[in-house]
Amino acid sequence: MSNLKRAFERKTFVKEDVLAQINDSQRRNFNFGWLLALGLTLVLFVSGLQWVNTSASYVAVDINPSIVLTTNPWDKVVEVEALNEDAEALLVNLTLIGLQVDEAVELIVAEATEMGYIDLLAEGEVVMVTAYNRDKVDEKLSEKIRERVQERLENREMAVHVVGHEAVAEQKELANELGVTLGKVLFVQKMMEKYPELGGEELYTMPIKDIMAKVKELRGNGPDKAALEQKKALLKQRAENKIQERTQEMVQEYREENPGTELTDEEIIRQEVRERIEEIRQNRKGR
To answer: Exposed, middle or buried: residue 131 (CB in 10 Å: 0-12, 13-18, 19+)?
Structure first.
Protein backbone atom coordinates (compact mmCIF):
# COMPACT_ATOMS: atom_id res chain seq x y z
CA MET A 1 0.00 0.00 0.00
CA SER A 2 1.37 3.45 -0.89
CA ASN A 3 2.24 6.05 1.72
CA LEU A 4 -0.30 8.41 0.15
CA LYS A 5 -3.10 5.88 0.55
CA ARG A 6 -2.12 5.23 4.16
CA ALA A 7 -2.16 8.95 4.83
CA PHE A 8 -5.72 9.20 3.48
CA GLU A 9 -6.80 6.29 5.67
CA ARG A 10 -5.13 7.78 8.75
CA LYS A 11 -6.18 11.30 7.74
CA THR A 12 -2.64 12.46 8.48
CA PHE A 13 -0.79 14.28 5.73
CA VAL A 14 2.81 15.38 5.45
CA LYS A 15 3.31 17.84 2.60
CA GLU A 16 6.64 16.37 1.43
CA ASP A 17 5.24 12.81 1.42
CA VAL A 18 2.19 13.80 -0.61
CA LEU A 19 4.26 15.67 -3.23
CA ALA A 20 6.73 12.81 -3.48
CA GLN A 21 3.92 10.29 -4.11
CA ILE A 22 2.29 12.53 -6.73
CA ASN A 23 5.58 13.07 -8.56
CA ASP A 24 6.34 9.34 -8.49
CA SER A 25 2.91 8.55 -9.89
CA GLN A 26 3.36 11.13 -12.65
CA ARG A 27 6.73 9.65 -13.58
CA ARG A 28 5.26 6.16 -13.82
CA ASN A 29 2.37 7.40 -15.98
CA PHE A 30 4.75 9.35 -18.19
CA ASN A 31 7.04 6.37 -18.70
CA PHE A 32 4.14 4.09 -19.52
CA GLY A 33 2.67 6.55 -22.00
CA TRP A 34 6.05 7.13 -23.63
CA LEU A 35 6.71 3.39 -23.92
CA LEU A 36 3.24 2.85 -25.36
CA ALA A 37 3.78 5.58 -27.95
CA LEU A 38 7.21 4.17 -28.82
CA GLY A 39 5.77 0.67 -29.20
CA LEU A 40 2.99 1.87 -31.48
CA THR A 41 5.50 3.86 -33.55
CA LEU A 42 7.70 0.80 -33.99
CA VAL A 43 4.74 -1.35 -35.00
CA LEU A 44 3.61 1.21 -37.57
CA PHE A 45 7.18 1.65 -38.84
CA VAL A 46 7.72 -2.09 -39.31
CA SER A 47 4.29 -2.47 -40.91
CA GLY A 48 5.10 0.41 -43.22
CA LEU A 49 8.39 -1.19 -44.24
CA GLN A 50 6.66 -4.47 -44.95
CA TRP A 51 4.05 -2.69 -47.06
CA VAL A 52 6.69 -0.69 -48.93
CA ASN A 53 8.47 -3.94 -49.85
CA THR A 54 5.27 -5.80 -50.69
CA SER A 55 5.30 -6.75 -54.35
CA ALA A 56 2.67 -4.99 -56.40
CA SER A 57 3.76 -5.94 -59.90
CA TYR A 58 6.24 -7.99 -61.89
CA VAL A 59 7.83 -6.28 -64.88
CA ALA A 60 9.46 -8.58 -67.44
CA VAL A 61 12.17 -7.08 -69.67
CA ASP A 62 13.10 -9.14 -72.72
CA ILE A 63 16.00 -8.32 -75.03
CA ASN A 64 18.13 -11.42 -75.21
CA PRO A 65 18.90 -11.14 -71.54
CA SER A 66 15.57 -11.73 -69.79
CA ILE A 67 14.97 -10.04 -66.45
CA VAL A 68 12.02 -9.81 -64.06
CA LEU A 69 11.74 -6.73 -61.82
CA THR A 70 9.49 -6.91 -58.77
CA THR A 71 8.04 -3.53 -57.82
CA ASN A 72 6.24 -2.14 -54.77
CA PRO A 73 3.01 -0.06 -54.87
CA TRP A 74 5.06 3.04 -55.79
CA ASP A 75 6.64 1.38 -58.84
CA LYS A 76 10.02 1.11 -57.11
CA VAL A 77 12.13 -1.99 -57.72
CA VAL A 78 12.35 -4.22 -54.64
CA GLU A 79 13.77 -7.36 -56.28
CA VAL A 80 15.62 -8.29 -59.47
CA GLU A 81 15.70 -11.77 -61.01
CA ALA A 82 17.85 -12.86 -63.96
CA LEU A 83 16.19 -15.54 -66.05
CA ASN A 84 19.24 -16.62 -68.04
CA GLU A 85 23.02 -16.45 -68.01
CA ASP A 86 23.09 -13.43 -70.31
CA ALA A 87 20.91 -11.56 -67.82
CA GLU A 88 23.19 -12.60 -64.95
CA ALA A 89 26.19 -11.16 -66.79
CA LEU A 90 24.31 -7.96 -67.58
CA LEU A 91 23.26 -7.43 -63.97
CA VAL A 92 26.61 -8.20 -62.37
CA ASN A 93 27.50 -4.53 -61.77
CA LEU A 94 24.05 -2.92 -61.89
CA THR A 95 22.28 -1.78 -58.71
CA LEU A 96 18.57 -1.52 -59.51
CA ILE A 97 16.93 -1.99 -56.08
CA GLY A 98 15.24 1.22 -54.97
CA LEU A 99 15.04 2.77 -58.46
CA GLN A 100 11.80 3.67 -60.20
CA VAL A 101 10.97 0.88 -62.60
CA ASP A 102 11.38 3.05 -65.71
CA GLU A 103 14.83 4.13 -64.52
CA ALA A 104 15.76 0.49 -63.95
CA VAL A 105 14.59 -0.53 -67.44
CA GLU A 106 16.54 2.35 -68.96
CA LEU A 107 19.73 1.19 -67.24
CA ILE A 108 19.13 -2.38 -68.40
CA VAL A 109 18.72 -1.21 -72.01
CA ALA A 110 21.85 0.97 -71.79
CA GLU A 111 23.89 -1.92 -70.37
CA ALA A 112 22.51 -4.33 -72.98
CA THR A 113 23.52 -1.86 -75.69
CA GLU A 114 27.04 -1.53 -74.29
CA MET A 115 27.36 -5.31 -74.17
CA GLY A 116 26.27 -5.68 -77.79
CA TYR A 117 22.81 -7.20 -77.32
CA ILE A 118 21.30 -4.08 -78.93
CA ASP A 119 22.71 -2.48 -82.07
CA LEU A 120 21.72 1.20 -82.23
CA LEU A 121 22.71 1.34 -85.89
CA ALA A 122 20.46 -1.54 -86.90
CA GLU A 123 16.80 -1.13 -87.82
CA GLY A 124 14.04 -2.69 -85.79
CA GLU A 125 15.88 -3.00 -82.47
CA VAL A 126 13.19 -3.82 -79.92
CA VAL A 127 12.92 -4.18 -76.15
CA MET A 128 9.83 -5.94 -74.85
CA VAL A 129 8.41 -4.75 -71.52
CA THR A 130 5.40 -6.45 -69.94
CA ALA A 131 3.92 -5.69 -66.53
CA TYR A 132 2.01 -8.39 -64.64
CA ASN A 133 -0.22 -7.35 -61.76
CA ARG A 134 -2.11 -9.90 -59.65
CA ASP A 135 -1.57 -12.63 -62.23
CA LYS A 136 -2.80 -10.61 -65.18
CA VAL A 137 -1.22 -8.36 -67.78
CA ASP A 138 -1.42 -4.80 -66.48
CA GLU A 139 -1.73 -3.00 -69.80
CA LYS A 140 -2.00 0.42 -68.15
CA LEU A 141 1.25 -0.04 -66.22
CA SER A 142 2.96 -1.60 -69.25
CA GLU A 143 2.00 1.40 -71.38
CA LYS A 144 3.15 3.86 -68.71
CA ILE A 145 6.53 2.14 -68.44
CA ARG A 146 6.90 1.92 -72.22
CA GLU A 147 6.21 5.64 -72.65
CA ARG A 148 8.58 6.68 -69.86
CA VAL A 149 11.40 4.42 -71.01
CA GLN A 150 10.94 5.37 -74.67
CA GLU A 151 11.20 9.05 -73.79
CA ARG A 152 14.31 8.43 -71.69
CA LEU A 153 15.99 6.48 -74.49
CA GLU A 154 15.18 9.11 -77.09
CA ASN A 155 16.63 11.81 -74.83
CA ARG A 156 19.83 9.75 -74.75
CA GLU A 157 19.68 9.35 -78.54
CA MET A 158 19.18 5.61 -78.30
CA ALA A 159 17.13 4.34 -81.24
CA VAL A 160 15.42 1.43 -79.51
CA HIS A 161 11.71 0.73 -79.76
CA VAL A 162 10.00 -0.35 -76.52
CA VAL A 163 6.99 -2.57 -77.13
CA GLY A 164 4.55 -4.68 -75.16
CA HIS A 165 3.80 -8.39 -75.31
CA GLU A 166 1.12 -9.23 -77.84
CA ALA A 167 -0.67 -12.50 -77.20
CA VAL A 168 -1.50 -14.80 -80.08
CA ALA A 169 -4.81 -16.56 -80.56
CA GLU A 170 -3.44 -19.85 -79.19
CA GLN A 171 -2.46 -18.23 -75.90
CA LYS A 172 -5.87 -16.62 -75.54
CA GLU A 173 -7.57 -19.96 -76.25
CA LEU A 174 -5.36 -21.72 -73.68
CA ALA A 175 -6.25 -19.11 -71.06
CA ASN A 176 -9.95 -19.75 -71.67
CA GLU A 177 -9.50 -23.53 -71.50
CA LEU A 178 -7.57 -23.40 -68.22
CA GLY A 179 -9.78 -20.75 -66.68
CA VAL A 180 -6.86 -18.43 -65.94
CA THR A 181 -5.97 -14.94 -67.06
CA LEU A 182 -4.06 -14.24 -70.26
CA GLY A 183 -1.34 -12.64 -68.17
CA LYS A 184 -0.83 -15.88 -66.24
CA VAL A 185 -0.45 -17.85 -69.50
CA LEU A 186 2.11 -15.39 -70.86
CA PHE A 187 4.09 -15.38 -67.62
CA VAL A 188 4.09 -19.16 -67.16
CA GLN A 189 5.13 -19.76 -70.77
CA LYS A 190 7.97 -17.28 -70.38
CA MET A 191 9.22 -19.08 -67.26
CA MET A 192 8.85 -22.54 -68.83
CA GLU A 193 10.81 -21.37 -71.87
CA LYS A 194 13.69 -20.24 -69.66
CA TYR A 195 13.42 -23.16 -67.20
CA PRO A 196 11.94 -26.29 -68.85
CA GLU A 197 12.45 -28.24 -65.61
CA LEU A 198 10.24 -25.81 -63.71
CA GLY A 199 7.06 -27.81 -64.18
CA GLY A 200 3.99 -28.24 -66.35
CA GLU A 201 0.37 -27.18 -66.33
CA GLU A 202 0.29 -27.04 -62.51
CA LEU A 203 2.16 -23.75 -62.81
CA TYR A 204 -0.95 -22.10 -64.22
CA THR A 205 -2.71 -22.52 -60.86
CA MET A 206 0.21 -21.16 -58.81
CA PRO A 207 0.61 -17.49 -57.81
CA ILE A 208 3.39 -15.71 -59.68
CA LYS A 209 5.35 -15.15 -56.47
CA ASP A 210 5.38 -18.95 -55.88
CA ILE A 211 6.61 -19.54 -59.43
CA MET A 212 9.41 -17.06 -58.85
CA ALA A 213 10.29 -18.88 -55.62
CA LYS A 214 10.66 -22.13 -57.61
CA VAL A 215 12.86 -20.31 -60.12
CA LYS A 216 15.16 -19.22 -57.29
CA GLU A 217 15.36 -22.79 -56.02
CA LEU A 218 16.38 -24.04 -59.46
CA ARG A 219 19.09 -21.39 -59.71
CA GLY A 220 20.61 -22.46 -56.39
CA ASN A 221 23.16 -20.24 -54.68
CA GLY A 222 23.58 -17.91 -57.60
CA PRO A 223 26.06 -17.45 -60.42
CA ASP A 224 29.85 -17.26 -60.32
CA LYS A 225 30.41 -13.51 -60.33
CA ALA A 226 34.01 -13.72 -61.55
CA ALA A 227 32.98 -15.87 -64.53
CA LEU A 228 30.15 -13.47 -65.35
CA GLU A 229 32.53 -10.50 -65.18
CA GLN A 230 34.78 -12.25 -67.68
CA LYS A 231 31.86 -13.03 -69.98
CA LYS A 232 30.62 -9.46 -69.70
CA ALA A 233 34.03 -8.05 -70.66
CA LEU A 234 34.20 -10.39 -73.66
CA LEU A 235 30.73 -9.39 -74.84
CA LYS A 236 31.58 -5.70 -74.51
CA GLN A 237 34.73 -6.14 -76.55
CA ARG A 238 32.80 -7.94 -79.27
CA ALA A 239 30.18 -5.18 -79.22
CA GLU A 240 32.83 -2.47 -79.57
CA ASN A 241 34.37 -4.25 -82.55
CA LYS A 242 30.95 -4.70 -84.15
CA ILE A 243 30.03 -1.05 -83.59
CA GLN A 244 33.29 0.13 -85.15
CA GLU A 245 32.64 -1.99 -88.23
CA ARG A 246 29.05 -0.80 -88.53
CA THR A 247 29.91 2.87 -88.07
CA GLN A 248 32.65 2.68 -90.72
CA GLU A 249 30.20 1.08 -93.17
CA MET A 250 27.52 3.65 -92.40
CA VAL A 251 29.90 6.60 -92.74
CA GLN A 252 31.27 5.26 -96.03
CA GLU A 253 27.75 4.76 -97.42
CA TYR A 254 26.72 8.27 -96.40
CA ARG A 255 29.80 9.85 -97.99
CA GLU A 256 29.22 7.92 -101.22
CA GLU A 257 25.60 9.11 -101.32
CA ASN A 258 26.53 12.68 -100.30
CA PRO A 259 29.87 13.51 -101.95
CA GLY A 260 31.45 16.71 -100.71
CA THR A 261 29.68 16.65 -97.34
CA GLU A 262 31.42 18.61 -94.60
CA LEU A 263 29.99 16.51 -91.78
CA THR A 264 32.44 14.69 -89.54
CA ASP A 265 32.12 10.94 -88.96
CA GLU A 266 30.62 11.57 -85.53
CA GLU A 267 28.05 14.02 -86.92
CA ILE A 268 27.02 11.50 -89.58
CA ILE A 269 26.43 8.80 -86.96
CA ARG A 270 24.47 11.18 -84.71
CA GLN A 271 22.34 12.22 -87.66
CA GLU A 272 21.58 8.59 -88.56
CA VAL A 273 20.57 7.83 -84.96
CA ARG A 274 18.33 10.92 -84.82
CA GLU A 275 16.61 9.77 -88.02
CA ARG A 276 15.94 6.36 -86.46
CA ILE A 277 14.52 8.03 -83.34
CA GLU A 278 12.25 10.19 -85.47
CA GLU A 279 11.00 7.07 -87.29
CA ILE A 280 10.18 5.50 -83.92
CA ARG A 281 8.30 8.64 -82.83
CA GLN A 282 6.27 8.63 -86.04
CA ASN A 283 5.44 4.95 -85.59
CA ARG A 284 4.23 5.63 -82.05
CA LYS A 285 2.00 8.46 -83.26
CA GLY A 286 0.51 6.18 -85.91
CA ARG A 287 -0.54 3.52 -83.39
So the answer is: buried
> Domain residue spans in the chain?
3-52, 55-166+224-287
Selection from 171, 94, 95, 185 nearest residue 132 by Cα:
185
State how far the alpha carbon of 16 is from the alpha carbons of 11, 13, 59, in Å. 15, 9, 70
The per-residue pLDDT for range 109-124, each reduced to its tens digit, is: 999 988 988 887 777 7
Q: Is 146 exposed, middle or buried (0-12, 13-18, 19+ CB in 10 A)?
A: buried
Quote the pLDDT of residue 41. Answer: 53
pTM of the model: 0.68
pLDDT tens digit sequence for 18-42: 455 545 555 554 455 555 555 555 5
Residue 85 CA, distance from chain mean position: 18
Phi, psi values for residue 80, rounded to 5°: -130, 130
- From CA 179, how far away is CA 111, in angstroms rounded? 39
